[in-house]
Fold cysteine--tRNA ligase.
Amino acid sequence: MVDTKFLWRNINSFQIFGYRKLIYLNFNREYLFSTMSSKSQPEWHAPENKLPLPTLKLYNSLTRSKVDFIPKNGKQITWYNCGPTVYDSSHIGHARLYVTIDILRRVLTDYFNYDILFVMNITDIDDKIILRARQNYLFNNFKSETNSLTQELIEQVKAALNDFAQTKLGVANNRSALNLAPSKEDPKYLLYANTLRETVKVVASAECSLEDNDVSQEAAHQLLTGSKDVVSSWLDKEKGHTVTDQKVFRDLAAYWEQDFMKDMELLNVRPCDILTRVSEYVPEIVEYVKRIIENGYGYVVDGSVYFDTQEFDAKKTHNYAKLQPWSAGNEGLIEEGEGSLGSQLLGKKNKSDFALWKKSKPGEPSWESPWGPGRPGWHIECSVMASEILGENMDIHSGGIDLAFPHHDNELAQSEAYHECEQWVNYFVHVGHLHVEGQKMSKSLKNFITIQQALENYTPRQLRLCFLLHQWDSKLDFKESSMSEVKSIESILNNFFINTKALLNEHKHSVYESDGTHRYRNPEREIISLLREKQVAIHTALCDSINTPAAMSELMELINKTNIYLSNGRNNINVYVLENVAKYATKMLRIFGVIGNSALEEIGFRVSEQQKVGNTEDIVLPYLRILSGFRDNIREFARQKKDYSEFLVLSDKLRDVDLVELGVSLDDQEDGKALVKLVDKNELIKVREAKLRAQAEKAARKEEIAKAKEEERRKRLEKGKLAAEDMFKNVKGEDQENAYSAFDEQGIPTLDGQGQELPKNRIKKLKKEWEAQKKLHTEYLAWVANNNESTNTE
């Protein structure tokens, strides 16, 4: 009988040793396979998903609800984000918008693994840019041409003041404006009123300088600098039409675009995939407007082109103001959307109609078009640039909630009119408002915070954590108490990562040692179980319209409970369990952009002072010098046979001074072995300085208490200056109650002032007083002697 199993297992061996023929002589190969095929594998049971996960939903402004997120092309997403109008410094509201959009983009890319084409525009043609550029240009020329302080110059500034009062505040002159009560209807009133008041003070100061015969250029420039807003507005009104060089407008936009990009880089906002500028798409804008007219939704009036909202809304396939239909008739919002230079755009068929193309007036940039020299309207730019790159439909369009109407509603209308489609955008994502300490941010309220100002008080990481802790589509109140909470969370995270990395680095040196204990017990099971539970909870939160506050809450609960586990001590923890938690926390924080572009295997926040690139000598020598110096001191102390306490002082200096300068923290543990941590040098110095301040304050309080006690003792001892033998003899005669006429040999009274014998209980009381004074006098004499001895010694 042929042992087929043996032959099958060893067939290759037989072939190797040249026994193939032998095999075929002993059994038929077909017989072998037929015998084996009669043996079937056991049934395989398909696993059951006991924990089905939710699908991603996004809050869609087009439905004002959370809806399933379904990209039109599998895992690919097309996304257009409204960029900034670049004419001034970016503020904390911009930070909230662009960091929040960056968080959403990172989550969709790095967590849900979508492939995103992300487009953002720069608005470099706009009424605000035109005004600011023109005013800066005219003011700088006026200032450079002013060489001295004159009465004529002062009168010009006064004329500008009166014009400002009339134009901005609606009063005849600046004197009347100073007496006006604040207007509730115009939120800019306070800003205008404050500007006017400050300018009045500057003018008064200039008049005093002129009276003192100070006609210097410096005095003149102080007047102009202090009244810049008022004078710039006046100059623009008088000479704005003379500015014809388009470079004036482009230079201002280019400057602030660069400033914005620097801010975004500091905030760790990923650059867009494609950046568009309005000034580079004017030919495409002209063609876009032409088709809207051809499709019957636009009309020309005196060189300008308007969008016909009623004609558009009348079509069954179109709807105007999809995002905020209740705002369609809001004339205030409509006028604001047309820009500060749009008030002269006349001839609209309907109040809700808006400019697609604006006829350029003198002093405005212009481009040729079939309707004459002009410039793009505000809303058309995004429609054209997004359509050029993303086509007739996109997955996501995003921006601030303040742009929903009229800007985004007008974008939708003109784009759907151009493409003759029902839906140009599938998901409209709007980031919520930002207030400061409960109020809308405004220069007039003195709560206007630029990004650079915010970064003077908070790190980019802290700002991002703040935005993460608030739902992206809700209002955020930026206040000191919220940032205190953020700093606390950052500290918890940082300490967790530092401790974990220290333990992992320590474990590397003993990874192959074993004491026979596996250290995977109930505490470890609980942490791993918690980790898996939080992974599901965080996924669920992110599927719920990318709910980062909930996700962060789950993550912090995981960290806090792991910290409790860590408190068991290095000998009672499983570093692999700890590493799992740390790696997951790092992964999620990297996805959120809280952790920067560190290596993927790196855990936690990067320790900036330690992440240096250089040759081995540059990196290692600072540590070796400290080690060598410490060794030298130990040897010297040993030769001098110093007391052991001095060795401890030297050891503390190594910990608190020398290693701090290298960003190394030695955390003394209960087992007597320090845990070595790499920490940001600046953070360690701050901690050390805070510790030294606390010690100094404690010492000062102690010294103050000692001085107070010494003063109290001195006052008490001063009472002992009088000898006990004389204490009752100095009582004045007029004090009849305490006057005495006879004393014993110790000076204790025996007769009162009338010669009457004192009662025994009275004598007993006086004796106690005498004994107390005797003791105090003895202490006094010792104190005086001690002070004299100290004085002689000195």
Summary: The longest helix spans residues 681-718. The chain has five domains: 59-127+262-469, 128-252, 481-511+518-592, 616-679, 721-791.
